Amino acid sequence: MRWLLIAFVALCLAGGAFAWHFLSPPATPPFESKILQSINETCTGNTLCTLQMSTVTPFDWDKMYAFEMGIGASEMNQLLGTNDAEYCDLQRHLIFLKNGKIVFQECEPEGIEEATKNEMTFDIPETGKYKSYPHDVVFLVTQGTSKEGPWFNLKQIR
């Protein structure tokens, strides 16, 4: 009888951990959080604002890539001309290069059916899987709303 009780408790704990891990909203990665902090400090309400990416990056870079969810690791590495890109399944990728070498990369959670709270979307063409941006890129930031909360669209204007 005691064995059944221990097995039942272990099963409940495992089920709870599984549900918490897969059903809770994904945490915002550190770099994306820094971008969001900058947006929240400069953008108020529903007003349109701009973001110069180089002002929020604590590292030197000359080209930024935003990859959509679903691009394969080999295709991403081929586009970058490297074999060093970290691959994260079912996530977007932000990768920064300096002189053709990766200096920073981060995987970003993405909502499957709609944008999630604090998600950032980029102006990647619908027929494309990525877009590259120069160091002096400036984005027009607009805010959208999902069931979970606000999300942000970044569209290149310079």
Structure write-up:
By secondary structure, the protein is an alpha+beta fold. The chain has one domain (28-156). It has three helices and eight strands. A four-stranded mixed beta sheet has the order 1-7-8-5, covered by helices on one side. Strands 4-3-2-6 form a four-stranded antiparallel beta sheet, with no helix packed on it. Strand 7 (138-145) and strand 8 form a beta hairpin. The longest helix is centred in the N-terminal third of the chain and has 22 residues, at 2-23. The relative contact order is 0.18. Residues 4-26 have low confidence and may be disordered.
Low-confidence stretches: 4-26
Total of DSSP H or I helical runs spanning 4+ residues: 3
The Cα radius of gyration reads 19 Å
Proportion of beta-strand residues: 25-35%
Estimate the helix proportion, in percent: 25-40%
Overall domain count = 1
First and last CA, distance: 70 Å
Helix vs. strand class: alpha+beta
Shape: globular
Largest sheet: 4 strands, mixed
Number of strands: 8
Strand order in space, largest sheet: 1-7-8-5
Following the backbone from N to C, one meets helices and strands in this order, namely HHEEHEEEEEE
Mean pLDDT: 81
Quick take:
The protein is an alpha+beta fold. The protein has helices spanning 2-23, 30-42, 73-80, and strands at 49-52, 63-67, 91-98, 101-109, 120-122, 130-134, 138-145, 150-156. A four-stranded mixed sheet has the order 1-7-8-5, covered by helices on one side. It has a four-stranded antiparallel sheet with strand order 4-3-2-6, with no helix packed on it.
